[in-house]
Queue: 2 jobs
Job 1
Amino acid sequence: MPKLTSKQAKKADSASDARSLGPIFNKDLGQHILKNPLVAQGIVDKANLVSSDTVLEIGPGTGNLTVKILQQAKKVVAVEMDPRLAAELQKRVQANGDQRRLHIMIGDFMKTELPYFDVCISNTPYQISSPLVFKLLEQRPMFRCAILMFQREFALRLVARPGDELYCRLSVNVQLFAKVDHVMKVGKNNFRPPPQVESSVVRLEPKNPPPPVDAKEFDGLLRICFVRKHKILAANFKQTTVLNMLEQNYKTYCSAHEMMVEDNFDIKAKVIGILESIGMADVRAAKCDLDDFLKILLAFNNANIHFS
């Protein structure tokens, strides 16, 4: 049997040590386990749980957050993609005698039909950050709040305000349907294995009732406005691809509602006229707030022009 080189032997010893400490984490699944108990407690405290709460936890890992949530809540529903970590979590909770109050759902969160919950707490796999947020915002019945860990730059985009460098389409889309606050910074050394980026925790509270706005159409408007957020809106709307899309949408709407399209119809003149009529032709998306975008959407819809 060939002998291992010193480098190979060292690598084998490291792997053995890692296995003795628990499961090998899969970075492809975004598995970075929060190891600092003080940070974990701080996250749970931000949720302001009450004893009757059912908590949805996304990506519980080995349960460092789960056991703290179970101390304050009635029940935890944990969605975990990795069966190995789910088994570790089950064993850990059984040792504490809390297994009856924990329901583990094994599978992809984005493909999972969620049960009712009051509060969501998540050390989020960073690669699903954006779809996770919008899936939560579509949840009915609505939950009270979510305490979510994200890559710091993504978190700062969520809470960005007009004029901020990171203010973007994501900021406006999320803030239309929820109040979002940055509540905590979390350094990379608080995780095992450490991620390559710093993290932050945000608190997200859905607006209840939600605003009567079509999310898909609102996003269609924002796509145009933020394609070049520092350009005036008139310049963004004058792009040929944008004008062609809006003209097609207008004609489709007229056809569906048995309305005649004017013989001398000029989509460019109509679009610029709408923007000028509400004083928004020369403003920039980077400086517009939520009310500005809602005003633009209403003006176009009143002129039978839609964005989806």
Job 2
Amino acid sequence: MSMRIVPAAEYSSTFKATNTSAPSAPGVHDTLRHGVGSVDTSSSSAPAAPVSRHPLEARLKAWESTQEALRMESLRRAFGMAEPIRRGMELKIARDGHWRPSALGPPGAPGVHEDVLRGREATLDWDDVFTGEDQRPAVSVHDEMERKLKI
């Protein structure tokens, strides 16, 4: 394993445009040239990776995974193989938790336990504030417990 701090430069020196965007506005579908129905509307769970011409964007996408790999490798070298395995198991248990109140965030979003295990409890990102759950009515913890326990 390597002790890489910065992600590797894995970008090509050439770029081939495969999208149907307008030349003056990259990323915006050009309806006049390519028609209305040619937009890819595949509903996959993960959003499609944006096509980028800049090599820095590819490095920024790999930044967190590189930092996590460095952290696990340094733990393995300091404490042995058991420590990264234990942390991975604890992270999996925290992610696969059965139930969490909606006051702690929408389902599927990383919870407090996962943030603590990943060392991100002191960081605040855009996704932490704007969860997309603004229009949903607030449900109290008591109502959730009554629904969960069928009272």
